[in-house]
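Supplementary Methods, section 5.1.

A reviewer requested that the exact input to the structure prediction be made available. We therefore reproduce it here, unchanged from the version used in the analyses.
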Amino acid sequence: MRSDITPPPGAPLTGPPLPAAPRLARGRGALALAALALAATAGPSSAQTPPGFGGPVEDWHNLGALGLGVDVDGAALVVKKVLPGPAQQAGVREGDRLEQVGGAALRADGPGPVLQVVADVERAEAARKAAPVVLGVRRGGGEPQQVPVDVPRIGAHAKACPDKCKKCQAIVEAGVAFLVRQQQGDGCFPTDLGGKTGKVVVTSLGGLALLAAGASPAPGGPLDRALGYVMNNIGKAEASPFGARPGGGNWNQENWELGYGLMFLAEMARRTRRADVKARCAEVVAHIERNQEQSGGWAHGPGGPNALGYLELEIVGNYLLLGLGAAKKLGLAVDGDRVGRAFAWIEQTAGPDGGVGYSPRPGQKGHGDPGRTAGAIVAFAALGAQKAPFFDKMCGFLGAKLGELPEGHVSPAMHLLAGAMAARVLGRPWDAYHDRYRLLLAAQRRPDGSFSSMPTRESRSLRSNSDLTVGPCWTTASYVLILALDPERLPLLLGGDAGEDGGGRRRGPRTGN
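The structure derived from this sequence is encoded token-by-token as follows.
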């Protein structure tokens, strides 16, 4: 099994360059089907655009725990949003221009001004004595003023970060606390997009985040209530959350909830040993197998071509296969012939370099994406296919493209999580992943414990950020998982000890009771 997706020698480890905010005309190109297909693609007519797409959005860069949303303007940062937190308490206002940090001018080259500020936040958090982040702020036409911003001191990252890292543990606990505060009375973690399917997806991801963080499944607690919501709603038919759409077409999106839901249910069945949860997993396995297309791939949902006239797309298959792999490790029967057909279809999407494409259709085959490829690597591994020749090809592609995960199609959070899971499953690349992305992950933190969406070239050009639209429970659960991934707490997904002891061996603070 190949386990080396380490970036090529000389590759920068400070994170990818961050996009500036161009002044854009309203986009009229096809908007991408949103992360998890919780939103739909729009054609030239805005009448086909679900709410929140194609118009102005607050697609700002987040400056970590300072609580500021900013746009990049050359080497400067323009404050667009001030959240309750340290920067607000220091008097920073919307419209301010940040031109310095720590007495040094912000620079457009290198990692860029956003990560330059975030690096100084990390320094201040690690200081043993008070050492504020000092921002050079220009307001209106005045001279720059030095504004000290005090941030909580939560320590430095451990050498093995995020493993055995008290700072990451504190960040994870704050993220879990945010998720618990957002949980609704019916147990779901809310999202404004995608109706019931969206809620099942986000609740399942939130549940996995709590499991990875060490939360207890005690009756009546957050995990137990999330489990109840998913058990009661997964696979149930519902009308399209987008209503009747011009031009007709199939708007069924249920395969996303089946994949994410089965991942969560299988881990919870192992953790709780509940026979009813295991039985529900078996029902979802059968549902997924029924929904597989003749080609071996899966569409967003059953019912024929969608509103754009196509059927299968690769990325949804990754999460369906990962769910099937978890169910198989749980001891449930999974049709090997169907799995083999799915693997063959995924390979058909790829080019010679092993990068997994959107589909085998002309114009999409061979256009490899590192996030899709990472998800396929984890799915192959979950189903024991690491010795397949195509597996090595995918690992080679991901190693070469590891630094491009945030620019993946539609959802940076989904692609960064897939990359982290692949790095964790393969082993050795785990350190390379976190060396590269530690500052970028820190940039998404907010003072309330949540994690922000991040702008990309795609989101800026289309005026549509799916992570922003799906909401903070989606992004927070994704980044908590990245920091808390543990094969012993999520053994069915990550290949750890999947024994019947009902819990992980590595112990830590249990949150969310």
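The chain is about 40% helix and 5% strand. These observations are discussed further in the main text.
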